[in-house]
Amino acid sequence: MTERDEVAVVGAGLAGCLLACFLARRGYPVALYERRPDPRTGRVERGRSINLALSERGLDALRRIGLADRVLADALPMRGRMIHPVSGGQEFQSYSVSGDRAINSISRGALNNALLDAAAALPGVRIAFDHRLVGLDPTSGDLTFETPQGKVTAAASVVLGADGAGSAVRGQLLGYGVLTESLDFLDYGYKELTIPPIGGEFALDPGALHIWPRGTSMMIALPNPDRSFTCTLFWPTHGTASFASLGSPAAIERHFAEHYPDLVPLAPNLVDDYQHNPVGVLGTVRCTPWQVDGRVALVGDAAHAIVPFYGQGANCAFEDVVELDRCLDECGDEWSAALPRYQRRRQDNAEAIARMALANFVEMRDKVASPVFRTGKRIEHTLERALPGRYVSRYELVSFSTTPYAEVRRRVRRQHQAVGVAAAGVVALLAGAAGALIRRGRRG
Ligand code: FAD
């Protein structure tokens, strides 16, 4: 393959648009194919607005194409969690030991539009909306799309699938027998609800990510620039206590009055939102390989969709793009070398964040409200202050650094072991001192 042939990117979502920007910067002509119409001219589907927590990994990628400030202008910083118990007052838990580090609430649509604008402005990027990929020959790079005008075909030297969790590119590779996948769906789904502004002001503190931990269910709320909050309720999809169990407006009102009493006066459209907003599915996608013959590769959710409980899906997708760009650099734009290297570097990291995201669900829906958890967090922050740079919490490493996810898991394990050993040493020392005192007492 010659350098600088056209690259086809399938999916103009977050990863696809960023990828188009990075590739165009390297001098590649890029064809960006998207199944939907241009979102900049359309309306958001009801209950699918999704606001994201954008953190350091995502910002690092955006800084590299000069887009971070533009994106942050539409974002709201959240410096910690605000816990809402069933009764009693709210409690703020800072994300960082310094208290000033923040993750950023941004609408996925606004972020996507900013990236689309950036890609469209670059010479060499051609965006084809209303193009749904339905066929891909991984050996030739021939592509088939369904469009409102019927089927069209295209060809590309390299095809990058950035078409999300239900990736058609992945499906095609599966069909050719060159890839295997596993899909692990949670028995939880999610539904969006809204807290509008009150008298033009935020109804809750906009500087926090709000959490209502309820054990078997959980709700979170992130602020929007229009002073509303988008709430996401996570609950089992089936069973006696589940989305399926609330069949009437009265049942919905009763349920929220019992479990989320402080939400009820803030959400005047609660029943309507609940009845009409869809229930989304949640799951983890794993597949291997992520690339075939140095010609076709998967990026972002297409390769590794994860559950949203660490707020890292898009951040991780952006990191993929940065790593792919780095591999192209290191391999002199030789795709046949760069794509396998990209897979080697990213696969373990994607698996690490997939596991941490699943573990964080238990933490958010259950543990954050418990006194043991709060004490643990206080001890963690004390250690961070006492050992700056040597003891760093998992949350800070994931959200406020670009330390590879797999290294984060290893480092946190080492830190916990060291603290365990130190604690055992202190206990032994105290036991020794107490024993000596008792012996001395007996002698006296
Ligand atoms: P997508 O954003 O899904 O984009 C895929 C694109 O491909 C879409 O535009 C789609 O229309 C297009 N496409 C699909 N099929 C085809 C086809 N056949 N042909 C052509 N085009 C196609 N991440 C975070 O970082 N922080 C968060 O706080 C966070 N919160 C989340 C909350 C919820 C409730 C959910 C569901 C997700 C959350 N995420 C979060 C995850 C984040 O939304 C995803 O990881 C991110 O959108 C992945 O980007 P992507 O470009 O890989 O896929």
From TrEMBL:
Which ranges does the record mark as transmembrane?
A: 418-438
Reactions performed catalytically: L-kynurenine + NADPH + O2 + H(+) = 3-hydroxy-L-kynurenine + NADP(+) + H2O
What are the protein's UniProt keywords?
FAD, Flavoprotein, Membrane, Monooxygenase, NADP, Oxidoreductase, Pyridine nucleotide biosynthesis, Transmembrane, Transmembrane helix
Q: Which GO terms describe its molecular function?
A: FAD binding; kynurenine 3-monooxygenase activity
Q: State the EC number(s).
A: 1.14.13.9
Does the keyword section mention Transcription regulation?
no
Q: Which domain of life is it from?
A: Bacteria
Biological pathway: Cofactor biosynthesis; NAD(+) biosynthesis; quinolinate from L-kynurenine: step 1/3
Cofactor(s) annotated in UniProt: FAD
| Single GO biological process annotation from the record | anthranilate metabolic process
Read off the InterPro entries from this record. Answer: FAD-bd (IPR002938), FAD/NAD-bd_sf (IPR036188), Kynurenine_monooxygenase (IPR027545)
UniProt KW Nuclease keyword: no
- Give every FAD-binding domain span: 6-355
Family according to the record: Belongs to the aromatic-ring hydroxylase family. KMO subfamily.
**Function comment:** Catalyzes the hydroxylation of L-kynurenine (L-Kyn) to form 3-hydroxy-L-kynurenine (L-3OHKyn). Required for synthesis of quinolinic acid.
Any idea what this protein is called?
Answer: Kynurenine 3-monooxygenase
Gene it is expressed from:
kmo
